[in-house]
Design goal:
The structure holds two protein chains of two kinds. By secondary structure, chain A is mainly alpha-helical. Chain A has twelve helices and no strands. Chain B is mainly α. The chains are: A mainly alpha, B mainly alpha.
Chain lengths: 272, 309
């Protein structure tokens, strides 16, 4: 029986990669419609880079992603230092609250943000997108850095203090260098989540601030074009680069460790 | 798993701190520093999650004018409307789809986790990486990929044609099957990780002991390994069931948009009908379902652990 389940598992692994391979292969297909292979071509990449409307939305997404990831990383780092180094009564509750957006269905968060923005008459645009993406990436960055912090030897920080370092110097000369890889990992993953987000963006994007996934989604409603496969291929390559540079250990800490809840997609990142 | 996360930060450095911080003033300085460091996160969570959700809760009881705008007041009408056939149909279909997806994801996730756990540690890391990569790929790309895989002229049709199946009348996408497939593909990694994590914690000798005591393959799994990994299985179910209800992209792209999930309903109510109070009521229903599912999951996990102990 173990052999049967092993074969099923191997088939599942193949199943995970069939669509990915399909996107990559079809992005080089010369045919302009349908899914029959007619020859190799870079034509769709040319079309993609000539599609200014789509590139414009990609720029919007990049701006939102950089801003949201940066703010989420800074706030997450501060919170992690607070939670691990200066635990106060109720800091456990605070961590629970930070992780909340991973547990609440993303669509409810989107609706909630739209309600509060319309209640306060905040015009929908880049700002609301950044705030929306901030709240779903903050749990991720905080969890990564809390995890990294816990594995750090606290005596290193105390030694720095004993040797006369001010808290700021301890941070810049000791803490930050030790945390650098986790900070980069947190930023990259937050950026990836923001770049691909569609649920929150559906509710909080404005007329002039369509993000790339929103544009792709509206294009897909009238059918899949080979140009989108070219875009998909570039995004797949980007993901491979991010995931491999972040490394398996970091990923396992986020996803598989019992101390950190796995993202809901949605997640996140996750499915929506 | 959350209790674990919550409990830990207070434990480690705290005693050492207290020893060193002999004077009362230093302890207070520590508290202030801690609170200052947490302040931005607290403000973000309050302002962008907790208060907005409370506002949705309020809106779900609000009256609306003919344009769907909120006029204040208090009414239970929005919730009463949830029983209307239109809404009840969406809810029924969603619960069915979510249940189906959860069962499929758990079954496949269990088999894959069992496979990974039984490999040597270095292979385990590689396999996990293989599962993680698709999970991080852009969600839309992962979904529209199935259109070309299942579309006419695509690889699946190629295989069917080669096998001599008459494909003239066949349409694989959009179809209900494509939706099920798309949901499985979207949620499988989410289901695998918690199951893998709890299965990895099981002592391998347990399995051997079960075999020595005469347990067959099925018995070993259903009576021993499954109860022991129940925490992960329940977590996986939670991470699959509720989020499936909120999905709106997959039914549109792979199902042709005829059958709606709760997610589609919410999007339609907010962005097309602009009926905020009704949309809020549906959102609150989703939130209540989530809380119910969490309560049930907690109960099952506790009973699962007791049974084995």
């Amino acid at each position: 029986m173990d052999r049967v389940t092993s074969w099923i598992a191997r088939l599942v692994l193949v199943f995970l990669y069939v669509p990915i391979v399909a996107v990559i292969v079809y992005s080089f297909n010369a045919a302009s419609g349908g899914y029959r292979w007619t020859g190799f071509s870079f034509r769709w990449y040319g079309e993609l880079f000539g599609d200014t409307a789509l590139l414009q939305t990609l720029a919007t997404s990049a701006v939102v992603g950089v801003l949201a990831a940066s703010v989420a990383t800074v706030i997450g780092l501060l919170a992690a230092i607070g939670l691990v180094r200066y635990p106060v009564k109720g800091s456990g509750v605070v961590l629970g609250a930070i992780v909340l957006p991973l547990i609440v269905p993303e669509i409810v968060l989107g609706v909630a943000l739209l309600s509060v923005f319309s209640f306060l008459h905040v015009p929908l645009g880049i700002l609301t997108l950044v705030l929306g993406h901030l709240i779903i990436t903050l749990p991720l960055t905080t969890l990564i850095m809390v995890g990294a912090f816990r594995t750090l030897d606290p005596s290193l920080i105390e030694a720095a203090a004993d040797l006369g370092c001010t808290p700021w110097r301890t941070f810049t000369r000791v803490l930050f260098p030790l945390m650098r890889s986790s900070i980069i990992a947190a930023w990259l993953l937050a950026f990836t989540v923001s770049l691909g987000n569609i649920v929150i963006s559906t509710f909080v994007s404005g007329v002039g601030s369509t993000t790339m996934p929103l544009r792709v989604y509206s294009l897909l409603k009238s059918g899949l074009t080979p140009e989108l496969n070219a875009l998909g291929t570039l995004l797949i390559v980007l993901t491979f680069v991010v995931v491999l540079s972040v490394g398996i250990q970091q990923m396992r800490r986020i996803l598989a460790s019992p101390s950190g809840p796995a993202p809901a997609p949605e997640r996140t990142t996750a499915p929506r | 798993m959350t209790t674990d996360t919550i409990a830990r930060p207070e434990q480690r450095p705290a005693p050492r701190r207290r020893e060193r911080a002999s004077s009362h003033r230093q302890t207070r300085a520590t508290t202030v520093t801690g609170l200052l460091l947490l302040a931005p996160a607290i403000i973000a969570v309050l302002g962008l999650a907790i208060i907005p959700i409370l506002l949705v809760a309020r809106n779900s009881f609000a009256e609306s004018n003919v344009y769907g705008g909120i006029t204040g007041g208090f009414t239970l009408e929005n919730y009463a409307h949830l029983l209307d056939p239109v809404y009840a149909k969406v809810l029924g279909y969603s619960l069915g789809m979510a249940l189906l997806n959860t069962v499929v994801c758990l079954a496949v996730g269990y088999v894959v986790s069992y496979y990974i756990v039984s490999r040597p540690p270095t292979r385990q890391s590689l396999l996990l990486l293989l599962i993680i990569v698709p999970f991080w790929i852009d969600f839309l790309v992962r979904t529209f990929a199935w259109i070309s895989v299942l579309g006419r002229g695509g690889p699946v049709f190629g295989v069917l044609d080669a096998l001599g199946v008459d494909t003239a009348q066949l349409s694989l996408v959009p179809s209900q099957g494509a939706v099920v497939m798309g949901l499985l593909y979207a949620f499988l990694p989410t289901a695998i990780f918690p199951i893998y994590a709890s299965m990895r914690a099981i002592d391998p000798s347990v399995k051997e002991a079960a075999a020595d005591l005469g347990c067959g393959w099925w018995q070993t799994h259903f009576r021993v390994l499954m109860p022991l990994s129940s925490t992960g299985i329940v977590a996986a179910a939670m991470l699959t069931f509720i989020p499936t209800l909120g999905v709106f992209v997959i039914p549109v792209l792979l199902g042709g948009g005829k059958d709606q999930l709760v997610g589609n309903l919410i999007v339609t109510l907010y962005t097309e009908f602009r009926n905020q109070p009704m949309g809020a009521a549906v959102s609150m229903m989703l939130l209540v379902l989530m809380l119910l599912a969490m309560a049930v999951a907690g109960l099952i996990a506790r009973r699962g652990r007791k049974k084995v102990a």
